[in-house]
Every structure is written in C-alpha cells, then in structure tokens.
Specification:
Order of helices and strands: HHEHHEEHHHHHHHHH
CATH class of the largest domain: Mainly Alpha
Helix content: over 70%
CATH superfamily of the largest domain: GntR ligand-binding domain-like
Radius of gyration: 20 Å
Number of helices: 13
Strand content: under 5%
CATH architecture of the largest domain: Up-down Bundle
Distance between the termini: 72 Å
Length: about 240
C-alpha cells in the first residue's frame, strides 16, 4: 500500500485566509461588543458597503452571521437593528466560559513555565497602566489576551477558540462595567497568577471562578443604572 498523502494537507488556518465577509463581520462584531453600536442602533447594508468600499453581498453575509449569534435583528422591509443585551444569553455564555476556564486553570497550574508566568506578570502591568490612563478598550483587549495566553501556554489553544465563540454576549455587559470594574478585574488577575505560580490547580480554578462570577453583579447593577440596554424588564418584573 502506498504511503498516505494526508500529511501534506495544510492546516485550516493556512487554507482559509480571512475573506471580505470575515473582515466586515469582525469590524461590526467589535462595535456591537464595545457598544459603539448600542442596542437599538440601525444598520444599513448599503451604508456599511459604501463606508467599507465593498459590494452589498459580503455585508449581507456578515449581517446574517451576526444575526445567527443574536447580535442583530434582520427584518425584511424594515430596519436592521442591534439587539438589546439578553440576560439569558449572557448567563449561558458565563456558564460555558466558566466551565472551560476552570478546567484550563487546573491544567495551566501544572504546565506553565516560569517564562510563561513572567510574561503574564508583564501583561498585568500593562493592564494596570491602561486602568490608570482610563483606556478601557485597551484594558478589555489586554484582559482577553491574559485569558488567551493562559490557554495557549497550557497547550489548550482550542479552549480559547471555544470561549471566544461563546463569550460575545457576556462581553457586552462586561464592557459597560469597565468604568467601575476594571480595577477589580486587575486585582483578580493577580490572584489567578499567584495561584498559577504556586502550582495550585484548585486555587487557580477557584480564582477564575470568582473572577468570572461577577457577571451576575454586573447584570444586577446594569438593570438599575442602564435598564435601556436590555430592552425588557428584569425576569422577576416580567412575572409580576
């Protein structure tokens, strides 16, 4: 039997360059998550196509992908709008992310090298600088990088792919909380790193569980401070 040629196949990343649709999707996704496009904002295929210098078809495809994630609502013959934040979707994202990252932390505590840990330490220093300068978008990106780098350094890059694919709804709420929550997140990153340095799998898992669980308090506060972003009454109010 001749040897298999399977080893000559390229990786998916090499085989699939980012398309125009990908780039449009990523640009709009980021603006929905960081609330540049707030709940209720109207989107026009024609306007997006004109601004980005592309035809309407890739914009239409990007809109469809965003609608499948629950970020926009497409209504024929009516305006396409950014959806309100869904508390149910946020909590589903939290459940998935918490389960995946707790397992990751248990593995990372035993796998990360001193070089990996020192790199995370420097990353947290950059987070502190972003907080002091009130650069919220930068802090949000560095927050993601912290969690991503732990997954990658632990040899679990695929976990971050799963987390990223599911955390968008959670991120919309978290982004709104950065004005008062970034300092807490920074402190908790230090606690996660301390547990990793101590080679404490249970402690690292507990630290990230506590870190992510603040989403419940964030939702409760947003319900009071910015109820309009939800578009619906709180669950208990709906049942009244």
């Amino acid at each position: 039997m001749p040897p298999s040629e399977i080893q000559t196949l390229p990786s998916l990343e090499e085989a699939r360059p980012r398309t125009i649709t990908d780039q449009i999707f990523e640009a709009l996704y980021a603006r929905v998550v960081n609330l540049t496009l707030p709940p209720g904002a109207k989107l026009s295929e024609a306007e997006v196509a004109a601004q980005m210098g592309v035809s309407r078809q890739p914009v239409r495809d990007a809109f469809y992908r965003l609608s499948q994630l629950g970020f926009i609502q497409i209504r024929p013959q009516r305006a396409t709008t950014v959806t309100p934040i869904s508390e149910e979707a946020v909590m589903q994202a939290y459940f998935i992310r918490s389960a995946l990252e707790e397992a990751t932390m248990r593995a990372a505590a035993l796998r990360l090298t001193v070089v990996d840990l020192d790199r995370l330490d420097r990353l947290i220093d950059h987070q502190e600088a972003a907080i002091k300068a009130d650069r919220r978008a930068e802090f949000h990106a560095l927050d993601d990088q912290f969690h991503h780098d732990i997954c990658r350094s632990a040899g679990l890059e695929f976990v971050w792919t799963l987390v990223k694919d599911n955390k968008g709804h959670m991120d919309r709420a978290r982004y709104l909380s950065l004005s008062y929550g970034a300092s807490t997140a920074f402190i908790e990153h230090r606690e996660i790193l301390a547990a990793l340095r101590a080679r404490d799998p249970i402690g690292a898992a507990a630290a990230v569980r506590n870190h992510l669980s603040h989403i419940e308090q964030i939702i409760a506060r947003l319900r009071i401070d910015q109820p309009e972003v939800f578009g619906t009454p709180a669950p208990e109010a709906r049942g009244a």
